[in-house]
Amino acid sequence: MSNNAAIVELSQTANKFRSSIVLQAENKYIDVKSILGLFTTLVGNLSYELHVHGPDAAEAKAALSDVFAKHSLNVKVVE
């Protein structure tokens, strides 16, 4: 799988929303709106947790869950 496509799509999707969107990988927290942050983190088969807080959080969670699934990334959306 090319992570580059996943990273670009995740960042573009996240930037459509006003909510704070943070990916937790082990003890690191990455702003999903930052392509650079994703490039340095979205490697290997770690399991990730997605934290979304803000006015459009429900929509953002749904949209990003679709992107993660499409790219076969193991992400748990934290409610």
Automatic annotation (TrEMBL):
<dbReference type="InterPro" id="IPR035895">
    <property type="entry name" value="HPr-like_sf"/>
</dbReference>
<dbReference type="InterPro" id="IPR000032">
    <property type="entry name" value="HPr-like"/>
</dbReference>
<feature type="domain" description="HPr">
    <location>
        <begin position="9"/>
        <end position="69"/>
    </location>
</feature>
<protein>
    <submittedName>
        <fullName>Phosphocarrier protein</fullName>
    </submittedName>
</protein>
<dbReference type="Pfam" id="PF00381">
    <property type="entry name" value="PTS-HPr"/>
</dbReference>
